[in-house]
Amino acid sequence: MVDLSFAIDPVYIATIFIFIIGLQRMSHPLTARSGIVWAGAAMLIATLVTFLTPDLTNFALIAIAIVIGGGLGYIAAKRVAMTDMPQMVAIYNGMGGGAAAGIAAVHLLGTTTAATSTLAVVGGLIGAVSFSGSLIAFLKLQGWMRPRPITFPGQQVINMAVLALAVVSGILILWQPSFIPLSVATYLPLFFVLSLGFGFLMTLPIGGADMPVVISMYNAFTGLAVALDGFSFATPNYAMVVAGVIVGAAGSLLTLLMARAMNRSIPNILFGAFGATEETGTEIQGSLKPIEADDVAVLLAYANTAIIVPGYGMAVAQAQQRVKELADLLESKNVEVKFAIHPVAGRMPGHMNVLLAEAGISYDHLFDRDEINPEFPDTDVVLVIGANDVVNPAAHRQGSPLYGMPILDVELAKNVIVLKRGEGKGFAGIENDLFYRDNTRMLYGDAKESVGKIVQALKKL
Amino acid sequence: MDITLFWTAVLIVILAAFTGYVVISRVPVILHTPLMSGSNFIHGIVLVGAMVALGLATTTGEKIIGFVAVILGAANVTGGYVITERILQMFDRSKKKPEKEG
To answer: Among A47, A283, A289, B80, which is most buried by a count of CB atoms within 10 Å?
Structure first.
């Protein structure tokens, strides 16, 4: 066969360049769509050119693995509902981390130099943590595992001990001291079991509400692991290095931006076990006052202004289409309708924007927190659809676990209608005193059905 | 790794980190989710590393681990692409014909 391996480096460089352009385009709403297409094309070419790597064998195995993994990834991603997007990002990120850990393992089993094996150990540790951590994030968001923080006495000490042991076994892989009669074959499984264990343990105490930030952090971790793996090859794979570092840097920044939007610090998210403990000492005044859909319809029909606050409940109930119907109907009755989007409503920043866009609600109806907050006092009716923590006035009260989180000040509106499945708490697990306010009424039931009933009642008016 | 290569590597890492930082800063909140998903796809480049690892593997143990790594890497690539594409598709559609939906 003709040696075409000279093509690898220029293609990798071109790939990196196109990745950067792709990311750049993805960061502007108008060009976002084309960004992923560019990046996808670059990835395809990079994959194909990798087959030209000198001395490469096991072609059949590579091809079979690509078909299996690629096929499963493709089908699962196509089939999943838009509401399940956050956990899908988590699971695919975990897979990238797992692949990075696997590459590190193969390197450490083969012949390596001191420098490359050190990088492989660090890359393997980070990749394995990202893998098991993302898996827990996936299970929690998917509801296959209790989303509330899981805590036990001495948790931090145990976690740190597991991490320390993982690091020690990593050092043993590199050092292989002569006074211990064990080989890499023993240290390596130990190292990976401990690293994976640390990822699991580290994610257990993190509550579902903080998961997006954590997923973003593991995304940055995977990027870093990929970059380290890229250096661990005999000749560095700069496509992996550069793409990995870009994702590591971009992911870290994104993590900070998301944490800032929730007014939380990263250490607080990681070690705070947010929502695990109940706030004590504050009595909530008032009672829960239910309302019927017909009454809500009347209230809305005679309002001048209405603001809809969507939350995760709307996503779960797939109510966005009905909500669009309701908004159209109200506008035809000359009610001014606006949507108030909290940056972290739902399970990911921008989650609500995506769903409302899917239903066909145009951008000029959507307002973010800072834009809409001054308007609540002059609003006749606020419809809170499946949102909880982001409208909890407890955020204004010192001593509350939510204290300091910027919220939508819906309690200032003349009437607040809360559409809610039951009397449960929000994802943060904190009682919401908004529900007990004098101007608040509760409409219980599935969000899709409730909105449907309001629409029916409105049509009859 | 000799010393020239080392400093070249340091330079590349610094420039790449700066690039990642610049590209992401000043991004509107609504694009956080697609960007997270998009960068999740980008690190799918781990696939090429997994391919080389498997392609150069000699022992059965190395082959098994390499095989699993390629599966995971490939799933990261296709899954990451499709998810990002689906999220961005919604933005696109609502931009062009917001009135015709529903």
So the answer is: B80
Name beta bridge partners: A418.
A384, A442
A140-185 pLDDT per residue, tens: 888 888 877 888 888 889 999 999 999 999 999 998 888 888 888 8
Q: How many CA atoms lie within 13 A of A165 on its CB side?
A: 17
Among candidates A39, A101, A257 on the partner chain, residue whose Cβ is nearest the Cβ of B42: A39
Residues of A annotated as catalytic are 389
Q: Which of A62, A244, A253 sits opposite B43 (nearest CB)?
A: A244
Pick the closest to residue B43 from A229, A85, A24 (CA basis). Answer: A229
How many Å lie between the alpha carbon of B76 and the closest alpha carbon of chain A? 5
Q: pTM of this prediction?
A: 0.82
A27: nearest Cα among B16, B23, B43: B23
Answer for the pair A390, A428: CB distance below 8 angstroms, yes or no.
no
- Residue for token digits 């209405």? A306
Q: For the structural domain made of A293-460, what CATH number should be given? A: 3.40.50.1220
Judging contacts by C-beta atoms under 8 Å, the chain B residues touching residue A244 are: 43, 45-46
ipTM of the complex: 0.90
Among chain B residues, CA nearest to A33: B88
Q: What is the dihedral of CA A38, A44, A47, A52, to 10 degrees?
A: -110
Q: Do residue A102 and residue B53 have CB atoms under 8 angstroms apart?
A: yes
